[in-house]
Recover the amino acids of this structure.
């Protein structure tokens, strides 16, 4: 049995989507146990009309929420009645709990992973690894994407090792292609850190390093993992998300811009919906904090129940496939 | 009279688009003189059927081209018969020449600016500043976007000063809003360099600093200039371009995906074309190397004649509005 905590607070549509996603996961996965953490009365109300195996669901009361106005490190230390705080207390204190899923504040979740959970043996710094859907209907991981704004080449190597294992364990990618985010593809490109990282990755034979990658290639889906410092990784995923969103808005506006366009829109509505599904983050799970002592998955703050369901499924898969143990074992070999 | 060199080689559709763009510029701008640098015979052939003021156009023979397979610094030193090499020789040696436009190798163009032209007095390092069209039909400059992969806070401040003057002189933006690219909007976000740069920019009263900006906001057009180190700036523009391109490809594929969609496409064709125009880089000129001793504009390598025309117009405007002098004057005040 895999036991996962579900933080039911902190998202735009919480706790409804969190609870609905949890119920779906319970009904889909037989050896999954869930603990809903949040406002007990509210949770019970929302559960009233749901069908699920009551032996595999429990509730822990935590009425307070950490939101984006809170300072992450302060909040995760001081908001003791918050759902996220309680999740971390349980994760740390209860051996039987495997991991947690939250769609609340990324900053607080990261702070909690570092301050309250600690790292897997051998991990220098945990890294934030979201995934993005690509145009060839695969996914690409980006590691790190914001946990570590100051990095060095050795950290980048660890991100590559952890991220590569992650793509195997979470998405079944065999021998994941790992690229280094850089300003050009040639080996000598980039700053000193990138040049050093390139050399280290070339030598690292457990990583299938395919060289440098420029940011414009990300969505093509030719590689499975992009390794970067947290600052440029953050820029990479946010600008990609932002651009996709703005272009789709523009297309939508176009379809409403004239009577003729509106008629055309009726014809392409169905196909356009299918296309939108390819790019919908709700279908792809969340970002994982790689290197933390237990599995922590962060879903999109404005995600729906489907999104929460995929995050839980993802946490379950990582535990089932022993990602944490694989990271520890792999990193111990490197440091030897 | 403003005298601009046009490198006619190095682009995907060179020299045709370069020459056509040059002719359009000559016919539109009365006090502009152009020098076409490239294969003389080829240029003369392409000019044969064109109408323009022959007193304002001359040709310099340079049959060789620097392409993306050349190592930039080596090529700009050694390929003495290349059009770009000759342009820099002229820019450096001939006082009457104001600037140049090229759609060839960015790396070689940058190397030439640093190695052959040198910097405006007071400029620590030239910066590469492209512009992107935004969804509210304005433009945003990104400085630096690849010339300087290793930066410090003082360099970022210079980028802000130069970029701000640039947005005024090239696009007539009054009191341009300048933002610092960061992983979050709060003042304390980012690495040490970003925190230092934030403090410096807050104090810099000739720059209208509006605080930190996340990458996902870029295309909204709320700010006029984004300041960043060359590495993350490069990631910012390339991932934005890449994402826009991939989404548009996906939309196009959708419009051809079924008979029904194809019928719908006929209705929205015209409106979609208008929308595409908003995002078409050909309508917006090129990237400027800010801080170089003379005006250097880099157009898109796959740009068309319209793109080259806008680049020439841009170079003309910058010289007409004395950008270089303004940068020198402004930076001398800061260092005092």
């Amino acid at each position: 049995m895999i036991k996962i905590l579900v933080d039911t607070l902190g998202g735009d549509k919480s706790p409804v989507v969190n609870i609905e996603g949890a119920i779906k996961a319970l009904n889909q996965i037989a050896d999954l146990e869930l603990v809903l953490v949040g406002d007990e009365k509210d949770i019970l109300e929302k559960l009233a009309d749901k069908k699920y195996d009551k032996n595999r669901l429990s509730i822990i009361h935590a009425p307070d929420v950490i939101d984006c106005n809170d300072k992450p490190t302060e909040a995760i230390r001081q908001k003791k009645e918050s759902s996220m705080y309680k999740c971390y207390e349980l994760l740390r204190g209860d051996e039987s709990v495997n991991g947690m899923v939250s769609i609340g504040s990324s900053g607080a979740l990261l702070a909690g992973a570092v301050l309250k959970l600690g790292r897997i043996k051998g991990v220098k710094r945990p890294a934030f690894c979201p995934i993005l859907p690509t145009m060839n209907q695969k996914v690409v991981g980006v590691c790190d994407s914001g946990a570590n704004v100051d990095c060095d080449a050795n950290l980048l190597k660890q991100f590559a090792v952890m991220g590569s294992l992650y793509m195997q364990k979470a998405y079944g990618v065999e021998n994941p292609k790992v690229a280094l985010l850089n300003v050009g593809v040639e080996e000598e490109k980039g700053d000193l850190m990138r040049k050093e990282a390139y050399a280290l990755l070339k030598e690292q034979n457990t990583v299938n390093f395919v060289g440098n990658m420029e940011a414009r290639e990300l969505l093509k889906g030719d590689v499975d993992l992009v390794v970067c410092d947290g600052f440029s990784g953050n820029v990479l995923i946010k600008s990609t998300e932002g651009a996709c969103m703005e272009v789709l808005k523009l297309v939508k506006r176009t379809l409403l811009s004239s009577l003729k366009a509106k008629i055309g829109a009726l014809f392409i509505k169905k196909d356009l919906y299918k296309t939108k599904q390819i790019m919908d983050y709700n279908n792809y799970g969340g970002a994982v904090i790689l290197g933390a002592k237990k599995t922590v998955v962060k879903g999109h703050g404005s995600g729906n129940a489907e999104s929460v369901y995929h995050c839980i499924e993802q946490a379950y898969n990582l535990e089932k496939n022993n990602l944490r143990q694989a990271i520890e074992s792999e990193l111990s070999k490197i440091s030897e």
